[in-house]
């Protein structure tokens, strides 16, 4: 029997990898370059960015709503306008931007990104639109201790994961620990809590952080940089020659007319000043409420579809008889084992990025699908366990009274089994309230995601975490009270 299981798993794996591999070759075909017409037909241009990098891109609260602003957004707007389409800005972590571009989640990336040779292998860049350069942000109280990148011996220097600062800090410092974090705002918090001694980033960004925070100061980095490392360009999917050529006109205009310095930066600066004014958590109740809403939507939908899938799987796992039934049983078993043997986080990313190569699903839908697929495997086991826990004598008695196997299931086994299954289902629902937080990695606006926004907006590290802890507890506690109530009722009948 284990052999068959192994075969099914190998079969599924070959299917998955085979399909992942074949899509790889379709991306870079210049002969069928319809990149430009595709965007124009679609009417929207989706820009991916990591809004933790003022003045390039950052979140600002405008009339109680958080919005992504900054000079890169202005660059995106100009590009979209010149193409005659609408701009949509999508926020994600810096290190997943290029994956999102390659898998079609976004149409372009503008995120203060340097067109390095390594990146050029995977995506196409436009001409440069801005020249930055590197600096290091430190605590003002440490001024005098650190002069540049070489003064951090025995200390920790922070840099954003996936950024050129991270690679260069590793390469160009000695006896310095380089700590990577996904968001620059988290790095700044770590700096203020003295977990790290400095943060390497682009000079304009360092200036913005220092201008907004009296406890911070900046020093030159003195990194040895190539020309590509100091400029920012717009990235498109590999092979989008027509689109890149067209966008280069807009980018050249931006550069030649110095639009960034003359118009975009001053406009972004206005948001910067209003950004840190209100740091009370009450001010962000709307963001938290949205988070709760999304968390509940995901949990309810995923539980519902997960339950249906679980019922189907558990029935499939009980099939016996002809080879077809056996095959179905083995597939169901393989599925359950596979899902239970891989982390939900990986499954979420697989559905969003992997499945995204075939059908372009929005993040929320992908999140619900992934969690439902995951939950189904567990629910199937609860149902199977519940049914198995009903004494075999019950079936024998019912069958000897002349009941069909279907009727036995429906009238004798299931009513008893449901009492055993119900508490597990309730637990599953409560677990999903908490575990749905994983979908924040693909940018679904659930509670964790919202707390990250509040965190980067207020530069307060702990308060938003405390708030969502309480909110999660209220949700799970209420849910468990309600479920207990029904459970007790069932025990009475
Ligand atoms: N210029 C650096 C790079 O290309 C860092 C950019 C970080 N951008 C951001 N939006 N966080 O890797």
UniProtKB/TrEMBL annotation:
Transmembrane region(s): 294-316, 350-373, 462-483
Keyword match Cell membrane: yes
GO BP of this protein: amino acid transport
UniProt cross-references to InterPro entries, sorted A to Z: AA_ABC_transptr_permease_3TM, ArtM/GltK/GlnP/TcyL/YhdX-like, MetI-like, MetI-like_sf, Solute-binding_3/MltF_N
Signal peptide range: 1-30
Alphabetical keyword list: Amino-acid transport, Cell membrane, Membrane, Signal, Transmembrane, Transmembrane helix, Transport
Record bears the keyword Signal: yes
Residues of the ABC transmembrane type-1 domain: 292-480
Membrane topology term: Multi-pass membrane protein
GO cellular component: ATP-binding cassette (ABC) transporter complex
Superkingdom: Bacteria
A Pfam family the protein falls into: BPD_transp_1
One Gene Ontology MF term: transmembrane transporter activity
Compartments reported by the entry: Cell membrane
Family: Belongs to the binding-protein-dependent transport system permease family. HisMQ subfamily.
Name listed for the protein in its UniProt record: ABC-type amino acid transport system, permease and periplasmic component
Organism of provenance: Levilactobacillus spicheri DSM 15429
Higher taxonomy: Bacteria, Bacillati, Bacillota, Bacilli, Lactobacillales
